[in-house]
Amino acid sequence: MANTSGNAYGLTTLCPIINGHSPTGSLTTSLLATKDSESHDKKIRRLLQSLPINEDSLFARTDNTYFARLFILNDVFFQQGNDFKRDQLKSKYLCFNSNFHGELEPYLTRMWNNNESLVREIWQHCVAFDRVNRAKDFVEYIKSCQVTTTLFFNGSNDKPVKEQLKALYVKQMFSEFVLTQQGKSATETKQNFKYFLQRVQLNNIESPSWKPGQSQIKVN
Amino acid sequence: MTNIKNNRPLDLYDIQGNICKGYGRFGFPKARYCFFNFKHTRSANTFLTHLIDRITTSETWPISDDKDHQNIKPKSTLNIGFTYSGLKALKLPERSLKSFPVDFTMGMRARSSLLGDTGISSPEHWDDIWQDNKEGTGQVHAWLAINGRDLDAIELEFNILEDLIKQHPDGVRLLPGLKGPNNTNLNYQDASAVFENGNPTAKEHFGFTDGISNPYFEGCGNSKNRIPGRGKLMRDGSWQPLATGEFILGHIDEAQEYPPAPEPKLLSRNGTFMVYRKLHENVDTFNNYIDELTKDFSGSRDLLMAKMSGRWPDNGAPLTLAATDDEKACLDARMIALELRVKDGDRSALAERKILRSKWSDFTFADDKSGGKCPIGAHIRRTNTRGSLETENEAFDRPGALVDRRRLMRRGLPYGGIDEAMSDKSEQGIIFMSIGASIERQFEFVQQQWVNYSNDFKLGNDKDPLIGSHSGQITDKHIIQADTDSDLKDNKPPFFCTQMPRFVETRGGDYFFIPSITALRMIAEGMIDPS
Q: Under a CB-based contact definition with an 8 Å cutoff, are residues B147 and B23 in contact?
């Protein structure tokens, strides 16, 4: 079925960027100062290039994101051998792709609720976004820009992110456990395995585990 | 596959000798490497012009040293290469300079993070000679190598070189800053095969037998008997020479293309690139690690070492030939018996010995997919995968299609271990030199993806047990797989070598262009014209 694969959802959106320059003095950003004379797409690009990463990423702060990206589409090129085509688009587009666990509406609502000011800052340069004032509007806005997709991020299954992170954590810890048990007696290994199980708390999905977007090895 | 018959023979007299020959095998167990800075282009050009006639080419020599042949080989050899800054100092035209590949123009120092030269191996810890990387009188511009049958022959050639430098005081400077034995600061780097009972061996300072199975390429001038195990593995199990263009510019490579090369063609044809690295060996750390681990290992110390390298330390026999202590004892007994018969003049024993010895190079890992014999992460299985990356049946044109484009032609010798007692702090290791048409595709790829990473081997981020950039963490490991392929399954668990420290540290080096004799003459005469 389009847009879903099991419990994984593949969202692809093309949000048209306002043509021309932004009105003088009307825009301020908390992340960086942009020149008023810049075009909207330039302002978005500069903002995207300065977005927080890893644990502080917009998507690490939106639960259950597997993989997401934001980029600007200027024009569409196609080339295969000598066959070359270029579509001049009516506007530039902000492309927002996200693969996540669960359903679309709750996901977008979470995204808005957890990151409202940043979402506004990014999308304010898109056509008709000035009509978006609350989570429900954001959901509707994104859905109106949605394109149907059947392509999914291959590096993930369709389980909740916390479950996947815990599984990776346990796998990694188990490898380390095995490496430290070489040459030990069966009794000792059994005892150590008990401690290992107590330490990793298989049934506690929250902790200890890796955090979404975690870039350094330290357990929360 | 390139067709040998249709390919014109190589002009071996135009190709520098270190490209086609591993000098050690031809009876040159000693070497001296020195580095130059060109102060003044015109004077440097005159210096080079005088040097050209002394440069050793790849002309064919007989291996034997009998009376008929001994005058053909010189007592010493001389070869030269240039860094990118050296070619700039020699004022190559801008267009030629810009046509060199980016790996070479950046140089090894700037590529250190992708090579795993981090921590103690990072450039700030390299010998003084590599510290001055700004344009000026200290920058390394050229590498000169003298290989000799003995130290006297080297000294003789070195004296000639020093005289020539004295005649060009404004043009050429022999650079100091190479750390020698007992904390000396030298203007040369000596290297030597490790001698045992007065005879040179193929050993390095950890005790491994090194330098086996160097690649064989079309037109190299070496005996065709050397193709099996050294060329490229064909679908029917036979071996063919690798395409010349994998190792020499201006010739077709394994992709049926001319490798990217600087312009004009006369500058690059019959030339190549060389990686020079001084690799320090921490002998104490290595020996202590092996001694400690042997206590837990269910085999001999030699077997443990073999499971790390893929070859038995004493004679270099591959684990595919003898995978256990018992099998090795049988192999040794067979070799001794053959030697005795050969001594008695038994000609069939001579042939039998030759066939057996050919298996040192002529093997694959086809019967050892699980790594029960030679561990999947062992040094030789990483650096020359011999078709083992074709995990699905006939996935490629040839089983070794991936490795054929990533072969490293090793030139170089051990250094140190002669003038001071060996410890981690003393100066000993390997002068690693690797020749190939693309530093990035061959050396850098192998170093980054196969030595310091293991995704292609499905071993996560394990590193090469001998030369990997380890740091002693529990997960710095090497897995010795249990034998699950053979009928004699012993149900043993795999053995883990953990907390591996850094046995080998990088102490300096750079990337060099080794021009043909034609190009060298044109560089010296300022005649390079890419227009």
A: yes
